[in-house]
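Quick check before the chapter quiz. The format below is the same one you will see on the exam, so make sure you can read both the input and the output lines.
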Amino acid sequence: MRWPTLFVSHGSPMLAVEPGLTGPALAAWSAAQGRKPKGILVVSPHWMGEGLALSTRDRQVAWHDFGGFPPELYQLQYTAPGSPSLAARVQALLAESGIAADLDPRRPLDHGAWVPLRYLYPEADVPVVQLSLDMGRDAAGQLELGRALARLRDEDILVIGSGSLTHNLRHVRMPQDAPALPYVPAFQQWYAEKLGDHDLPALLDWQAQAPGAAQAHPHDDHLMPLYVALGAGGAGFRRLNDEVSYGALAMDAYEFAD
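Here is the expected output.
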């Protein structure tokens, strides 16, 4: 059985203690699979650089890469095993497509990785490798990268792109269930429709075609992991969650599969 891939919106770090609808949706998806993967490869915009790198820690730790949040958030951990062997496999697989990736033995899991993983696999018993986000790739480049990773699905590896379907921190408003700003549901609906139709030309031209694109993403980093997951996963599409958090953060999660 081939694993599907996931795109998850991690929103605010507060997701770790405020599950809303997103936490249960991720937990339900994991339970419905009836088994666990041999390993997880996760891409998050909180590790970005020119080119690619892979974490090779033997044991993961949760990096609290944020400030100004309640003390309870800084006590949370996610000590899943790492997997140097999986990192080496991903590096070799990318090399077959002419894509270079460095190995980083020090990099911990940023909150874009460990927060959703706490809901997907709370026992922290599945080995995790993090892949950095190549800031030099546009949507088409991220899709190409995902396609180079697609064979991992046949090797019992779950590929996750973690970001946020909308991500404009200047528009965040309290409380968590504040009404959505008008551009947010419009952007959500556009993506749901285009992904459902597998309309790649429109999806790759999202900045020109998606309603409210400039408001939804002043920077594109939190949207790019979606294209990695889409490229690795294929045309099949299922929307798992459509919550909006703090008025501006669309928390959509998608499953992609052949």
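If your answer matched, good. Strands lie at 5-9, 39-49, 52-55, 101-104, 128-134, 157-163, 236-241, 244-245, 249-250, 253-257.
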